[in-house]
Write a structure and sequence with these properties.
This protein is an all-alpha fold. The chain has 10 helices and no strands.
């Protein structure tokens, strides 16, 4: 990498960090390109030369969050051999990521739900693989006999959407559910994994579910 290329990379990194600060504080809808420019030490022209639109910032922040998420998912599955156990580990790792990095989670959740941002289709398609590790573990479980034969790709998409929906419910209504309906956040997690195992696992006694305090 030349000195000029390294300088451009550093400048781009600083702009992204400034954008994250603005978007995380003001929210995705309220933050503006002008807000980002004011947060940096660069001119508006410089900022726009790296990120022509708010949509580009949105996608880049999603990618940064996904890099962290994928690292956590890969780390989680290393401790298990059966596919069904790896899937369970992926679920808890996803919940933990959402609580440790709530801003990144919300960006990814917004992307999954259909952001409406104008992003290059080829770039957007890259993020459609964020559940690829889950698909691979489902296929592994089918091969090792711990998971019923299913369409792994289709099921992984459904499970990812379900997990996102449950987390959104907990983040948005968790306190109200506990106060008015006597439904604890932990019981929501427990029920989700119970339903998951009942629908996928070949042997429900493979391993007892463990309730983890992540929120």
């Amino acid at each position: 990498m030349t000195k000029r290329e390294k300088s451009k990379q550093i400048r781009r990194q600083k702009i992204i960090e400034a954008a994250e600060k603005v978007f995380f504080e003001k929210g995705l809808q309220n933050a503006t390109m002008d807000d980002v420019t004011r947060q940096t030490a660069f001119s508006k022209a410089t900022v726009y030369s790296y990120f022509p639109s708010k949509d580009e910032f949105f996608f880049t922040i999603c990618q940064r969050g996904n890099d962290i998420l994928q690292a956590k998912l890969h780390e989680a599955i290393q401790k298990h051999s059966l596919g069904v156990d790896k899937i369970r580990a992926i679920g808890w790792a996803f919940f933990e990521f959402a609580t440790q990095y709530p801003h990144y989670y919300r960006f990814i959740s917004y992307f999954v739900s259909g952001s409406g941002f104008a992003i290059n289709e080829e770039l957007e398609a890259q993020m459609l693989d964020l559940d690829k590790i889950l698909e691979d573990c489902i296929n592994l479980g089918i091969r090792d006999g711990s998971i019923k034969p299913v369409n792994a790709r289709l099921v992984s998409k459904c499970l990812w959407a379900m997990a996102t929906g449950i987390l959104d419910l907990i983040f948005q209504k968790g306190e109200l559910l506990e106060k008015y309906k006597n439904i604890e956040k932990q019981s929501i997690f427990q029920t989700f994994f119970s339903l998951l195992e009942q629908s996928l696992a070949n042997n429900l006694a493979t391993k007892p579910l463990t309730v983890m305090k992540v929120i």
